[in-house]
Amino acid sequence: QSLYEEGFRYTCENNVDLLELRLILFGDEENVGNTIRLVRDAYYHVKDEYPNFTVRVIGTSGKNRFFEKEFAQQILRSVIHLSRDIKDEYDPANPKDFIIGIDLVNEEDASKPLSEYADFFLSDEVIESGLQTFLHAGESLRMENDNVIDAYLFGASRVGHGFNLYRFPELLQKFREKG
Known about the structure:
This protein has helices at residues 2-13, 29-49, 69-83, 118-121, 124-129, 147-153, 169-178, and strands at residues 18-24, 54-62, 87-88, 96-97, 99-105, 132-137, 158-161. By secondary structure, it is an alpha/beta fold.
């Protein structure tokens, strides 16, 4: 916890008031929940010193060889379930969402394509959760990489990196229109 507190204080000292923290999570729902609560408790301690500071969590799993598809999806399912219970209750009379979204990360050229996760991201469970999807896509040297298309089709609120969006001018315009 003190490591998170140190990082949060450093962030505050550098005039950052809102930190959207991607937590790469491992394990079952209990372990995922313990990690998120640990971060929330550290945030509360620092918020006592810096009242304008806010932390929001984006629960993250990987899509590389260390994160088999089912394991990665189970972690994100845990985040979805926990988002209902773990709130920012620093002001108990006015609780707010603490977990705001989910993401899959890893070096794109060495990872599974987003299309392999279509059934998950387009499922009722994800859509009805109300969580945003922040998908890493478009950071590839491969011309055939089209993960940015899938990120758009999956309703990503924000795309991590998106460097190769220039290869898809119509899609780039759709992302601009979406904001």
